[in-house]
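Notebook entry, structure prediction.
Reason for the run: the old model in the group folder had no record of what sequence produced it. Starting over properly, with the input documented here first.
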Amino acid sequence: FSNVVPCFKAHPWRYLKLGSINPFLYYLILFKAYELLPAQQAQALNYTWAISLSLLAVPLLGQKLRKADLISLGLAYFGVLIISTKGQITELNFESPLGVGLALLSTLLWSLYWIFNTKNTDKPVISLFICFSIALPLIALVMTWQGAWLIPSIKASLAAIYVGLFEMGITFVLWL
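New structure, fully documented this time:
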């Protein structure tokens, strides 16, 4: 923990940007998309982050995409379109257009977070800790604004612990 404050002080704006994007905005938007969409649609849309990461890496990191890459990306999005429209792609009838938009926005936020993070030379676990520490008061402000403070049930507490450990904790460290 002795490296946390010096890392933050060396790049406060970077960390404020990163922590605001992920986990704060990313999960705020993603969980709303999950609330609006059936799980199989939300999950499929959310997992298009790899596509948006590839596409955003072209203008932001100077990466090149080959013709085969573009065809693969197009086929992947087409598959997600099939799932999102329940196979009725000509009608473009989504269960929740807002949910679809939010899920796709979450993929952009996730991709931007990792692209912006490519310039970060600090230790990855320390960087994650700083980003999550920045997001915590932002989440508290949103909860206060929404009047969402409550004492959770045991079931909700266990779900929160599970998400914290496996969706946001251990997996982030392993992703590094």
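Summary: The mean pLDDT is 91.
The old model has been moved to the deprecated folder.
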